[in-house]
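Fill in residues.
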């Protein structure tokens, strides 16, 4: 099968980086070794739309070890690592359609090219591949047995499709596992987002007012780490329960319209659209930094920002564009409003993706033996538990086990206190 990558000559560099990431991914490595022996995915074709990074490369290697043929398109052009893409094609035999920085047309062209494999299983990161199957490639949709989705936004879309009886095959919400919420969203997004902001701006976080839109798992992780770096954290929310949680954890909670006047750095992690818009830009102080680590480039209304602008100074620093407003104020937009942790940094540390991709690999294995109706399904609890167990083992950490008497006590209602 053909591929579309920027420079096959970068493969050697990509291999080095992939192997470096693999050192921090012991759980996935153990699954890959098991897959190589058992071959649970023999004969299956998998189409994936994911971030083309070194960590993803090690997931692709694991699926291949299980016997699968894999075609990969990029879920975010700004996160694509061209050397990783080249290595996957030249050294590991995957079909890859990804070039760093391609435009919207190129992005969807690559998704269509990956789907030409005629997939049995699909792996998606934002639901664009699944959406394409349901809107433009219905000829291939009926051949898909099942798939996995690894983002909050993607899962929201899938549930809506299921409610409208539009979903044509079963999808597993890998995003909703406890291990992914804990490691990927909380610890991964929390660290990698601040890493991207610091790389793009070289700003000091200590003493800054950092406004975080959304207090889900990603928002909590960000707030913890921003406070740990000396930031004064403000949280904006639409959910009363999450807002109350933020208050009780000691954060200031305000509407965005109010926080806009005080913030030095704004970070969106909601999965929704137009979280920061024209009315907020109008209130921001000179030099405010705008970053998104939630969903694509829709959370910050970049078009509204451009409409208010008299001059755009592109690349004042790598991945930092300065928008000069009519009154002379300057607002700095990072990564064009796309995911700052992937565009301006390297995404989650490999040790984080180790668990998320272990969930993905074991869920693919589980799906092979299932006959599910179209709908959205949770990852079996046994898989989530096994991934956590393997991770603890890789860290040489042991935990207690229930005694027989304790198991009886927990499972019986007849025994009193």
């Amino acid at each position: 099968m053909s591929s579309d990558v920027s420079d096959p000559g970068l493969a050697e560099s990509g291999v080095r980086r992939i192997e470096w990431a693999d050192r921090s991914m012991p759980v996935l490595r153990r699954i890959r070794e098991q897959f190589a022996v058992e071959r649970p995915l023999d004969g299956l074709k998998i189409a994936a739309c994911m971030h083309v990074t070194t960590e993803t490369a090690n997931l692709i290697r694991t699926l291949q070890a299980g016997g699968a043929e894999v075609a990969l398109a990029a879920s975010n052009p700004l996160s694509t690592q061209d050397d990783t893409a080249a290595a996957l094609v030249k050294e590991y035999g995957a079909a890859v359609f990804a070039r760093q920085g391609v435009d919207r047309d190129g992005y969807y062209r690559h998704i269509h090219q990956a789907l030409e494999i005629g997939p049995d299983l699909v792996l998606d990161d934002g639901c664009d591949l699944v959406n394409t199957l349901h809107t433009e490639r219905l000829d291939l949709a009926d051949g898909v047995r099942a798939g996995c989705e690894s983002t909050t936004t993607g899962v929201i879309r899938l549930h809506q499709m299921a409610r409208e009886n539009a979903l044509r095959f079963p999808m597993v919400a890998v995003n909703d596992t406890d291990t992914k919420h804990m490691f990927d969203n909380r610890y991964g997004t929390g660290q990698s987002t601040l890493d991207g902001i610091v790389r793009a701006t070289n700003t000091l976080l200590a003493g800054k007012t950092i406004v975080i839109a959304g207090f889900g798992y990603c928002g909590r992780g960000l707030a913890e780490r921003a406070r740990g770096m000396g930031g004064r954290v403000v949280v904006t929310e639409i959910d009363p329960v999450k807002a109350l949680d933020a208050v009780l954890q000691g954060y200031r909670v305000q509407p965005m319209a109010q926080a806009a006047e005080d913030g030095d750095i704004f970070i969106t992690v909601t999965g929704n659209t137009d979280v920061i818009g024209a009315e907020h830009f109008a209130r921001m102080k000179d030099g405010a930094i705008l970053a998104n680590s939630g969903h694509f480039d829709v959370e910050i209304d970049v078009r509204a920002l451009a409409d208010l602008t008299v001059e755009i100074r592109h690349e004042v620093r790598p991945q930092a564009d300065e928008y000069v407003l009519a009154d002379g104020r300057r607002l700095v937009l990072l990564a064009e409003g796309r995911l700052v942790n992937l565009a301006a940094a390297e995404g989650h540390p490999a040790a984080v993706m180790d668990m998320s991709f272990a969930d993905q690999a074991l869920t693919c294995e589980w799906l092979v033996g299932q006959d599910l109706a179209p709908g959205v399904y949770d990852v079996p609890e046994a898989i989530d538990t096994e991934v956590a167990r393997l991770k603890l083992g890789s860290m040489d950490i042991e935990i207690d086990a229930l005694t027989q008497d304790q198991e009886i006590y927990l499972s019986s209602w007849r025994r009193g206190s």
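Residues 189-343 form a domain with the Rossmann fold fold (CATH 3.40.50.720).
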